[in-house]
């Protein structure tokens, strides 16, 4: 981890950030001097992450991303602790089911939508109401390459991640000019979430990528920090594909 910069005066919320991509986003923001609230379901995991990130600049708030009371509490306590909330990274997500969509349990489909899409909308609404409407800011939503084309056997996940792309466009259109909203669509990134896709066969999995490796959380963390910065001041409504060149293969 690089040496943290002086306080930037900016504040962010990153959902689902006790490990993986969310943690890497929080780490990149803390390293540049932002104060950050991270969320996740497990109190213990959050506490460990806060300690690792530096507890003077980081607050952990445990809860389920889709829970409206948790969304409101997170925004309220962030403003209480840090005075503002400039940035939101909607990262928490789930992919609990593998199988043909024709046989998908609709209760599971609803749960996937609730966690991946409605949560992001709820956090965006709360952040807007409490701070960004008046003061502006930026949002980044973590979608997936699974949302950009068919994703056989993880259909509910793919559909929810496609919805994140349009949610990003809707929010960007309605919240401009004060608030910029973008998405990131990663291919396989080495985290607990994606482990089943590469564990025991990483070399083989990586060979399919033009850049010959899988993603690491820092690949996404740096890009999210860029989109949540003034360097991206004229970028809104976009989905940045971060895939080691994987999509290039679709045309060869
Ligand atoms: N890894 C990939 O290949 C990949 C590719 C494309 C997109 N993505 C997306 O990237 C995001 C992060 O994935 P990841 O790979 O970093 O996963 P991960 O390593 O499993 O981390 C997930 C994080 O989110 C928290 N979390 C999970 N469910 C939650 C919920 N319902 N409410 C609140 N927090 C929750 C987890 O903590 P607790 O378990 O304690 O809640 C953990 O901190 C997801 O939206 C995923 O769809 C991942």
Concise account of the structure shown:
This protein is an alpha/beta fold. It is built from seven helices and seven strands; from the N terminus they run E-H-E-H-E-H-E-H-E-H-E-H-H-E.
Set down the secondary structure blueprint.
Elements: E1 11-14, H1 20-31, E2 35-40, H2 43-53, E3 58-62, H3 68-82, E4 87-90, H4 106-135, E5 137-142, H5 155-175, E6 179-186, H6 202-207, H7 217-227, E7 239-242
Parallel strand pairs: 1-2, 1-4, 2-3, 4-5, 5-6, 6-7
Bound molecules: NADP nicotinamide-adenine-dinucleotide phosphate.
Number of domains: 1
What can be said about the biggest beta sheet?
Answer: 7 strands, parallel
CATH fold-level label? Rossmann fold
Give the low-confidence spans.
Answer: none
Number of strands: 7
- Which architecture name does CATH use? 3-Layer(aba) Sandwich
User: What number is the mean pLDDT?
Assistant: 96
Strand order of the largest sheet: 3-2-1-4-5-6-7
Count of DSSP-assigned helices: 7
Output the CATH class name.
Answer: Alpha Beta
β-strand amount: 5-15%
DSSP helix fraction = 40-55%
Order of helices and strands: EHEHEHEHEHEHHE
Q: What is the C-alpha radius of gyration, as a whole number of Å? A: 17 Å
Cα(first) to Cα(last) distance is 38 Å
Class by alpha and beta content: alpha/beta
Could you give me the name of the CATH homologous superfamily?
NAD(P)-binding Rossmann-like Domain
Bound molecules: NADP nicotinamide-adenine-dinucleotide phosphate
Given the C-alpha coordinates, what overall shape results? Answer: globular
